[in-house]
Write a structure and sequence with these properties.
The chain has three domains: about 1-180, no CATH class; about 185-315 and about 450-525, Response regulator (Rossmann fold, 3-Layer(aba) Sandwich); about 320-445 and about 540-555, Rossmann fold (3-Layer(aba) Sandwich). It is globular. It is an alpha/beta fold and about 550 residues long. It has an eight-stranded mixed β-sheet, with helices on both faces. A five-stranded parallel β-sheet has the order 9-8-10-11-12. A three-stranded antiparallel β-sheet has the order 2-1-7. It has 15 helices and 20 strands. Helix 8 (about 255-265) crosses helix 9 (about 280-290) and helix 14 crosses helix 15.
Length: about 550
């Protein structure tokens, strides 16, 4: 009766106030919601700074004290150091740092089950009695969990005031509580990016390999789901269908960002996989960092080297070659040049390598001369190697096609030492012009050589033969093949935890443990490392026993 009376009075007031009152009230509601959203967002951001950077809302550094009395401050005290960016935790030796996600701490949404160490598949962390805000504050300030147990000695105790605790709690409540974009209960979407100017044959073989692997994977999991009643947890939670979208970019690089954003709005992927670039990759790299999309091992000549979290590369490409060659030449007793000449094109990769080598040589007091090869001629000289004698060392930052055109103008190389880029020539010494395939020519190569390379790529060759796909480029196809094999392994270990940050962290932890089916000698990543292969061979590829003499150089 009371509620009914109030309702009648409200109706009369609304009618008398008329449309103008309703319009004003409607205008106020979005503003109030927006202000509330902004306040919540600001609070979460303050909590993020505590968690990731060790900075309190006041601007002061976070302070923590471990049970052994040692102090940690600022970034060293930040939660991210042990619990990782995703909040999914980590393991140092036999000491686990448990998850601190919203699901795990507060019992929100799904119950978390986390593989703490992929080498021990039975070692999992189950969800527990949910924390309250007060219980979490007690845990962080006193080092006692919500079961009354003292935490590990490595876990600091923090003197957090009420505003700091409120901010950190707000951040943790939303941390990794929902699937990342591109993931549903039944599917996971991946994307691959192809920039303009790509060799059509390489483009086609990459897409065929990826589409075939996706079909294989989906078919095998569908069959397993129909025929197996009792499945282990790892299999049951990795049954989602894989979807692949292909983003082929057009036009100049400055327009790619908008193209990527348009495609992302329509079909956001969980991660980027592989990818091809004929020149710059920087706009794609920046896009992935901005949208927080893992970009897994694209095939590019000149990767972007910065502090970005989301992009992972096989190696530094020609930049790695240039840095390794610089160290080799400067430190070598018998190969240190008196003068150095670089012959390069206008493309970003060759010019980038030339800049790195030029700077290093100049700092070491070794004179460097640059010669530009474009359209079949050098500038300003017509003869690309004019005036070069045995006192010079010559470095060619050119593709196999450009080397062939240079060889027509200069069939016989001078007796000076000369070096070629394996990244720019496809990693095959036979792509060097035949008349130049003799000592003292050397190949600067981040790729494996000899018998070990054959072992690494054996599975690739078998897989290609089984589908009657051509071997177009062994290095490139081994990169694509590795991505497909490794992605299947990684997603299995992730179980139900489809968070982008966690995907990157799993790759950091597991890369060195997976089978290396690439043309690279060794692959591994640590936290904050973004290049899986760290060195290059200085390979005397045309001597009688080339496999016995390559020198591995890590810049």
């Amino acid at each position: 009766m009371f509620e009914s009376t109030i309702s009648r009075v409200q109706n009369r007031l609304a009618i008398r106030a008329g449309a103008a009152w309703l319009i004003c009230a409607a205008a106020l509601i979005p503003a109030a919601v927006s202000a509330g959203d902004r306040a919540a967002s600001n609070l979460v951001e303050l909590g993020r700074r505590i968690y990731e950077e060790g900075i309190l809302p006041s601007g002061a550094a976070l302070q923590g004290q471990r049970f052994d009395g040692s102090q940690v401050t600022g970034i060293e005290a930040a939660c991210v150091q042990c619990h990782r960016r995703s909040g999914m935790g980590s393991k140092e030796g036999d000491t686990p740092a448990p998850p601190v996600t919203g699901n795990f701490l507060f019992g929100q949404a799904r119950q978390s089950v986390v593989l703490s160490d992929p080498r021990s598949p039975k070692n999992v962390i189950q969800s527990h009695t949910p924390y309250t805000d007060a219980a979490l504050a007690k845990t962080l300030n006193l080092g006692i969990d919500n079961q009354g147990k003292t935490l590990n000695a490595l876990m600091p105790r923090y003197a957090l005031d009420a505003p700091s605790m409120k901010a950190l709690t707000a951040y943790l409540r939303q941390l990794s509580i929902a699937y990342s974009p591109g993931v549903t209960d039944s599917s996971v979407r991946f994307a691959t990016v192809i920039t303009p100017g790509i060799d059509p044959q390489k483009r086609d073989v990459m897409l065929k390999m990826m589409q075939t692997a996706f079909r294989q994977r989906n078919a095998s999991h569908s069959l397993k789901g129909k025929t197996t009643r009792a499945q282990v947890q790892e299999d049951r939670r990795s049954m989602r269908k894989w979807e692949l979208v292909v983003w082929e970019l057009e036009g100049p690089a400055e327009t790619w960002s908008q193209q990527l954003e348009e495609r992302y709005r329509k079909e956001p992927p969980f991660a980027m996989i592989s990818g091809l670039a004929a020149g710059t990759w920087a706009p794609v790299h920046a896009f992935c960092q901005r949208e927080k999309i893992p970009c897994l091992f694209p095939s590019v000549d000149l990767p972007v080297d910065d502090d970005a979290f989301y992009s992972l590369y096989f190696s530094g490409g020609v930049a790695l070659e240039a840095a390794a060659l610089a160290r080799y030449l400067i430190e070598s007793k018998d190969q240190r040049p008196q003068r150095l000449v670089q012959l390069h094109g206008r493309d970003e990769a060759s010019q980038g390598a030339a800049r790195i080598l030029h700077q290093a040589m100049s700092e070491a007091g070794i004179p460097v001369e640059e010669r530009l090869w474009e359209g079949g001629q050098t500038a300003p000289r017509q003869s690309p190697l004019e005036g070069i004698d045995s006192q010079y060392t010559v470095v060619f930052w050119l593709s196999a096609a450009d080397l062939k055109s240079v060889a027509k103008a200069t069939p016989k190389l001078p007796s000076s030492a000369h070096y070629f880029s394996a990244s720019l020539t496809g990693g095959d010494p036979q792509r060097i012009p035949g008349e130049w395939q003799r000592p003292p020519a050397r190949l600067v190569s981040p790729y494996e050589t000899g018998i070990q390379r054959q072992r690494n790529t054996r599975l690739l060759h078998q897989w290609l033969r089984s589908f009657r796909y051509p071997l177009v480029d062994e290095v490139f196809q081994s990169e694509v093949f590795f991505n497909l094999v490794f992605l299947s392994d990684i997603t299995m270990h992730m179980l139900e935890n489809y968070y982008r940050d966690y995907l990157v962290e799993r790759i950091e932890d597991m890369l060195g443990q997976s089978a290396n089916v690439t043309a690279y000698p060794r692959l591994s990543l640590g936290q904050h490392q973004r290049f899986a292969s760290k060195g290059a061979y200085i390979w005397r590829a045309f001597e009688s026993k080339p496999a016995a003499v390559p020198e591995w150089v890590v810049p």
